[in-house]
Amino acid sequence: MAKILITGGTGYIGSHTVVSLIEQGYEAIIIDNLCNSSIESLDGVEAITGIRPLFEQIDMQNRASLDDFFYRHADIKAVIHFAALKAVGESVEKPVEYYRNNLGSLLNLVASMQKFSVGNLIFSSSATVYGEPDSLPIMEFHPVKPAMSPYGNTKKICEDIISDTARVNKEFHAISLRYFNPIGAHESGFIGELPQGVPNNLMPFITQTAAGIRKELKVFGDDYDTPDGTAVRDYIHVVDLANAHVKALDRLMKENQDDNYEVFNLGTGNGFSVLEVIKSFEKTSGLKLPYQIVDRRSGDVEATYASTTLANEKLNWKAERTLDEMTYSSWNWEKKARKMD
Ligand code: NAD
Ligand code: WQD
Q1: How far apart, in Å, do the first and last CA atoms of the chain sit?
Q2: What are phi and psi of 174, to 5 degrees?
Q3: What gap in Å lies between CA 312 and CA 31, rounded to an integer?
Q4: Which helix (H) or strand (E) holds 126?
């Protein structure tokens, strides 16, 4: 049973990936500093899989702690690196904190991995690196644009650090996965996303509004050049996203890919507008969602969705879950987490 380190594994996408890994027979070990997650997510993972993964509270900005970790776990075969700060707006306010945390963690990780001869890395990147796309669907070879936020820039720079490392060290195999818009939760309702404070993203804002925590949802702009005027995104169910990491890991562990650094888009390939997400939520929850159209949010792109051909072919993976399954599971989780059932 190959032992895999999941950094940021108590977080939203990390915890779902830990479940997928365990279900596929991998041994998961998590490190996280709990700056944006709770240890309780391990209870959820255990309730779903019957296995409580090993956990160590480590801040990845601390190189000595990371080295000590790898020294004590010499049998780690690969790392999936989720740990990062991820709020776009906050990154504009606190750029140094974002650069220090996201770049520092990755630099420490790559250095430790090389020191301890751990040669397989999967990195959580983001569709944000494409900026405003010139054409749709977005393909992996499309240009990476100047970042629209310090957060986005950390993803671009991390990709560069990884690709430069892979170029000079052929024993270092890495995959960057560019996520589009992950939403939803595990169907059990035992794990999901529960942001602290005011959510930045659409889906948690919707579920918090439905839960009565927020008065109404603000829809940012209805004058885009899209079928209903609201912005279009490629929403992907977090369980599909998690499963893609296992496929990427399978590919890395075979070590027979042509290139030791690869990039894949992870989306469904379909775009949905904000109003379509709201309609789906109303249908699956049976609730009426109060919302108001307001001005566009600065920095938002009009429409983005992925070409998934490369991931379909090379990772042998395809997103399977529908938008209704995404909105249903998001609400199921929010209700359970807030004990509203
Ligand atoms: P999350 O905040 O739920 O998980 C990230 C985890 O990393 C948290 O548990 C946090 O405590 C931990 N962490 C942060 N800095 C750390 C450090 N220095 N040391 C140890 N742990 C640290 O976020 P998520 O939504 O699960 O995102 C996971 C990854 O995917 C991130 O890298 C994020 O940038 C990327 N991503 C997320 C989205 C999205 O919409 N959720 C989209 C694209 C990419
Ligand atoms: C989706 C749509 C909003 C909130 C961000 C990051 C990206 C990635 C995913 C990390 C947009 C609209 C939103 C609201 C709204 N994260 N919206 N009212 O901006 O596509 O992507 O998260 O890597 O990097 O930029 O996601 O969920 O914020 O917005 O109308 O209260 O919903 O305008 O069209 P986004 P989002």
Answers
A1: 38
A2: -145, 150
A3: 30
A4: strand 120-126
The tokens for 6 are: 């999941």
User: What is the b/e burial string over 35-65, where b = at least 16 CB atoms within 10 angstroms of the residue's CB?
Assistant: ebbeeebbebbeebbeeebebeebbbbebeb
Q: What is the Cα Rg of the chain in Å?
A: 19
Q: How far is CA 293 from CA 103, 166, 220, 223, 286, in A?
A: 37, 46, 6, 10, 21
Structure-token pair, residue 54: 């090993």
128 lines ligand 2 (CB under 6 A): yes
Dist. CA 278–CA 55, nearest whole Å: 37
Q: pTM of the prediction?
A: 0.98
Instruction: Report pLDDT digits (tens) over 308-326.
Output: 999 999 999 999 999 999 9
Ligand 2, residue 148: give the atom nearest the CA. Answer: 25
Q: Which ligand is nearest to the CA of 200?
A: 2
In whole angstroms, how far apart are CA 103 and each of 109, 233, 254? 10, 27, 28
**For ligand 1, atom 10: residue with the closest CA:** 36
Query: Ramachandran region of residue 284, left (φ > 0), alpha (ψ -120 to 50) or beta?
Result: alpha
Q: Which residue has the higher pLDDT, 97 or 254?
A: 97
Query: Distance of CA 244 to CAs 157, 177, 186, 318, Å?
Result: 23, 9, 15, 8
- Please write the tens of the pLDDT for every residue from 228-252: 999 999 999 999 999 999 999 999 9
205 CB within 6 A, ligand 2: yes
Residue of the CA atom closest to atom 27 of ligand 2: 201
Q: Which of 91, 149, 179, 202 to mutate to test the pocket of ligand 2 (most atoms within 8 A of CB)?
A: 202
